[in-house]
Amino acid sequence: MSDTVTEPTFAPTIAPTIAPAETPAESPSRPVSDDGDHDRYSHYARKDDVTRAYVTGEAIVALCGKKWVPTRDPKNYPVCPTCKERKEAGWRI
Ligand SMILES: [Zn+2]
Q1: pLDDT tens for residues 60-78?
Q2: Which is higher by pLDDT, 33 or 53?
Q3: 50 φ, ψ to 5°?
Q4: What stretch of H or E contains 85?
Q5: What are the backbone angles phi and psi of residue 42, rounded to the nearest 5°?
Q6: In 3-state terms, what secondary structure has residue 40?
Q7: Residue 27 banded pLDDT, cuts 50, 70, 90
Q8: How far away, in angstroms, is 38 Cα from ligand 1 center?
């Protein structure tokens, strides 16, 4: 009974930010984050890890390797393509 990878867990971290139209596309003062796009997806992760993350607020590692903090309201996001691909390929986290 150690298989805990069966259930897909949808857990994005941050809602997409919509900038006003008059805002320039590039701002030199804006900090660059390389994982911004990942946060718009829901990821697969171990159910045990997700449950713990809900309680502790700790970041966990998704099937795609993304480290993020899951939330309870993931349905508004598409499934992470990498997670989906790997799950269908039989990956286990
Ligand atoms: Zn993912």
Answers
A1: 999 999 998 887 676 788 8
A2: 53
A3: -65, -45
A4: helix 81-88
A5: -100, 145
A6: helix
A7: very low
A8: 7
Of 34, 25, 91, residue with least CA distance to 63: 91
Tokens matching residue 41? 């997806």
Joined tokens for residue 58: 């700790």
In this prediction, residue 32 carries a pLDDT of 45
Taking the centre of ligand 1 as the mean of its atom positions, its distance from the CA of residue 88, in whole angstroms, is: 13
| Ligand 1 centre distance from Cα of residue 19 (Å) | 25
Q: Which residues of 11-46 are buried (b: 16+ CB within 10 A; e: fewer)?
A: bbbeeeeeeeeeeeeeeeeeeeeeeeebbbbbbbbb
- pTM metric for this prediction: 0.54
Over residues 80-91, the pLDDT tens digits come to: 999 999 999 999
* Distance of CA 31 from the midpoint of ligand 1 (Å): 23
CB 69 within 8 A of CB 89: no
* Residues sharing a CB contact under 8 Å with residue 52, sequence separation 6 or more, in sequence order: 58, 60
